[in-house]
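Schema walkthrough. Field components (list of strings):
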Amino acid sequence: MKSEPSVYSIDDLKKDRETSWDGIRNYQARNFMTNEMQVGDQVLFYHSNAEPPSVAGLAEVSALATADFTALDKKSPYFDERATREKPIWSCVKVRFKEKFKRTVSLDEIKKHSALSKMPLLQRGQRLSIQPVTEQEFKTICRLGNP
DNA sequence: GCCAACGTTGGC
DNA sequence: GCCAACGTTGGC
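Field assembly_structure (string):
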């Protein structure tokens, strides 16, 4: 799961312990949350638009997707005028902080690692903010983060 | 249903 | 700050 650290970083999650992953306004990402994500699923917390872009640590899904009511909040940056209480359109899971890596795993490092070459993150033009990760990729990145 | 225009993402 | 790539919107 990607987040810009200037908006919400892994340190913010560590402080909050748990957060609603709200504000997702992309159908593919939403569908992934509602259709795929289960409580207990392990999450790589990726800092996008960061210096350097990198995986900063781990979180885990702590609640199934439910309506994202920030879409109804006119004061929210995530307000969507099409959303109603009956049909909020958008959804979000909750995630809980697990750990910060001892060292961040940079995008550059991921690119250089042959076992990680298939990750969607590296595919051309890939902007999706929530992406699937295989168990092997997950383990490899954990090993790089906690050597 | 096509597609041009526009907005967003995110690495660089 | 630039811009490639992609998603969305809306006129037709």
